[in-house]
Amino acid sequence: MINAFEVPGDEAERFIAAWEKTRDYLATQSGYVDTALHQAVTPGADFQFVNVARWRTAQDFQTAIQSTGFRESAAGMAGYRPHPALYQVVRT
Amino acid sequence: MINAFEVPGDEAERFIAAWEKTRDYLATQSGYVDTALHQAVTPGADFQFVNVARWRTAQDFQTAIQSTGFRESAAGMAGYRPHPALYQVVRT
């Protein structure tokens, strides 16, 4: 799962706190493997944050984000436009 | 370096061929570590492709993409809107 977030430059700390709350919930869910939150070091990047998470299966991820616990834990992310999708590596 | 590309659904093969040509060049440059091209499995994803590459330093990457060889090898990517930036992992 890769999710690119549109976050104003001066809201990094607030975004990270909201992201951590969501991560703490998702990390308890079946099929969660790991995650890495990337912050841009390039000035003016279109996406200040990109999250790259691994899940055992697509179904595990879908089940996790359809839960009430997810919606509650992710409430603080509402102000940041996300661009999420599930991906597979096709070339290296 | 994370780069999210806007690619129409029916141009996947053409995009991958162009990406491979660019990768083959960049893989010869100083500081290149590795790369992974991710293709969306979610229908309607904003970005059909996201490339996640690792470089030894930001300067190595900047030097590589300012070369004539890069511009030549990346000519086939011109039609696909990119959203590139350099990132560091801030949370896991």
Report on this structure:
The structure is a homodimer of 92-residue chains. With 92 residues, chain A is an alpha+beta fold. Chain A is built from three helices and five strands. A four-stranded antiparallel beta sheet of chain A has the order 2-3-1-4. The relative contact order of chain A is 0.30. The A-B interface holds A 2, 4, 16, 19-20, 23, 34-42, 45-47, 50, 52, 58, 83-92 and B 2, 4, 16, 19-20, 23, 34-42, 45-47, 50, 52, 58, 83-92.
Quick gist of this model?
The structure is a homodimer of 92-residue chains. The first copy, chain A, is α+β, with helices and mostly antiparallel strands and 92 residues long.
Average pLDDT of chain A works out at: 97
Please give the alpha-carbon distance between the first and last residues of chain A.
17 Å
Q: Provide the helix percentage of chain A.
A: 25-40%
**In what range is the share of β-strand residues of chain A?**
25-35%
What class, by secondary structure content of chain A? alpha+beta
Unreliable residue runs of chain A: none
Q: How large, in whole angstroms, is the Cα Rg of chain A?
A: 13 Å
Q: Could you tell me which chain pair has the largest interface and how many residues each side has?
A: A-B, 31 and 31 residues
Shape of chain A: globular
Physical arrangement of strands within the biggest beta sheet of chain A: 2-3-1-4
- Tally the helices of chain A: what do you get? 3
Secondary structure tally: strands of chain A: 5
Oligomer: homodimer
| Largest sheet geometry of chain A | 4 strands, antiparallel
**Secondary-structure element series of chain A:** EHEEHHEE
